[in-house]
Design goal:
This protein is α/β, with parallel strands linked by helices. The protein is built from 12 helices and 9 strands. 40% of the residues are buried.
């Protein structure tokens, strides 16, 4: 019995050694790529045999490749050199490999890239002029060109919300890098402040639902004095302070409520209390939908690069205070410039990028699958219709919000999606 145990132990050691040697193939390949630093292994699911956190040296300005550099944080999951690669383009920071749906559907490799100027991918010092859509797309172009040496098969880019917007922009600036792009719930605005948001909020849902939302906001303003002690205690526990003052931050949060409510669908409009609601009921309904973090020093610092991109190139939304002007000290139209001007940042808007992107998606944006939710506020500014010759597909999930996915569509709609992806990729995508 002991001899058998020894034999089994030896066999186990041999097999384990073979597996380590096999699993080290990617690690060896990564170490041979120029500009790559392997930080270490990272958590991954059964789909991947190896996964690593890595950093890649990028120029701050791709027009000056010999100038200042920064390191861009990425995560890579390896399923096989002969399998497709999915490039997940974060619009913010990246804290892990993530679970991009296209990588799961295609049983593919996955690279998740942190956006320049976010998280651990910020140059020092910051040169704000180099935080542009083209510079970001050029980061991804450099990554694709390098990793195609290891993964020569089909490449798919994807992302959700601003991540998806980033994937869309990459496809526009470097259309030949990626075979298929799948942006989820990605906005494509028309101006610094896109008016379609207001049209959407004025028509989404039923008239009764919209009235409930409005009545809830009115109640939040009228019972502000009763609610503010709860707000102040809540923010103290979170260690949040506000550059515009907590009073104005509360007002902004009330104005934000309809956008956030329809974006995520966290609460049903008909469940909202109105004037009859107590201060505690109003507070408890407000915070799960949108709390004040976004307007705090913590939130503004974390998302400052995002607001910079929005106010200088990509566009965003603002707040119309007319329906609530009697409750507010500042009755002027509010945009997100208030996040930038205190930092001394220039909010001049570049008028060229958005027309370029709109022209691309309609006329040259081939092999792009757009996924949206019918009730998501950001669908108001999404690519919801292809009017030009681009070979693209738009799918809008009925009754859904910002968490829309391919798997959530009906069997018939999924078949349409898979058939289209199969045609674009040149191989059969199995229907789940």
């Amino acid at each position: 019995m002991k001899k058998l145990s020894v034999k089994l132990l030896v066999l186990f050691i041999v097999l384990a050694g073979n597996l380590v040697a096999q699993d080290s193939v990617l690690l060896k390949a990564l170490k041979n790529l120029p500009g790559i630093e392997v930080v270490g292994p990272t958590r991954h699911g059964q789909q991947y045999s190896e996964a690593y956190e890595i950093k890649f040296i990028q120029p701050v300005d791709h027009n000056n490749p010999d100038g200042p550099k920064f390191t861009q944080r990425m995560f890579i999951g390896h399923a096989g050199f002969d399998k497709p690669m999915v490039l997940s383009t974060s619009g913010y920071d990246a804290r892990g490999l993530g679970g991009a749906e296209p990588a799961q559907l295609l049983k593919a490799n996955l690279i998740h890239v942190e956006h320049r100027y976010f998280g651990q991918s910020a140059p020092d010092p910051i040169d704000w002029k180099c935080l542009t859509a083209w510079q970001s797309a050029s980061d991804h172009h450099a990554i694709v060109q390098l990793f195609k040496k290891l993964y020569p098969g089909k490449w798919v880019s994807t992302g959700v919300s601003k991540d998806g917007q980033t994937a869309m922009m990459f496809k526009a600036f470097y259309p030949d890098d990626i075979d298929v792009a799948i942006p989820y719930v990605a906005p494509l605005n028309t101006a610094k402040v896109d008016p379609r948001i207001f049209d959407f909020l004025a028509n989404v849902g039923t008239a009764e639902e919209r009235q409930k939302v409005y009545d809830f906001q009115i109640a939040l303003f009228e019972k502000k004095k009763e609610i503010m002690p709860m707000v102040e205690e809540y923010c103290t526990r979170k260690n949040w302070t506000f550059p515009m003052g907590i009073d104005r931050a509360y007002d902004l949060n009330v104005l934000e409520f309809p956008f956030a409510l329809w974006q995520y669908g966290a609460k049903k409009p008909m469940d909202l209390p109105g004037k009859e609601g107590t201060a505690k009921q109003l507070f408890d309904m407000l915070m799960p939908v949108t709390d004040l973090m976004w307007f705090s020093d913590t939130g503004l610092k974390q998302f400052l690069p995002h607001y910079y991109q929005a106010m200088t190139e990509m566009g965003y939304y603002g707040y119309d205070v007319k329906p609530f002007k009697k409750y507010m000290k500042d009755n002027t139209y509010i945009t997100y410039d208030f996040t930038l001007t205190p930092c001394g940042l220039d909010t001049t808007f570049n008028p060229k990028t958005l027309p370029f992107l709109h022209d691309f998606v309609q006329n040259r944006g081939d092999h792009i699958l757009y996924i949206y939710g019918e009730l998501d506020t950001w669908t108001a500014t999404g690519v919801t219709k292809i009017t030009g010759p681009a070979d693209a597909l738009v799918m809008i999930l009925k009754g859904s919000h910002h968490g829309s996915s391919i798997r959530a569509f009906s069997a018939e709609e999924k078949q349409k999606i898979y058939d289209t992806l199969s045609r674009w990729l040149g191989f059969a995508v199995p229907v789940e």
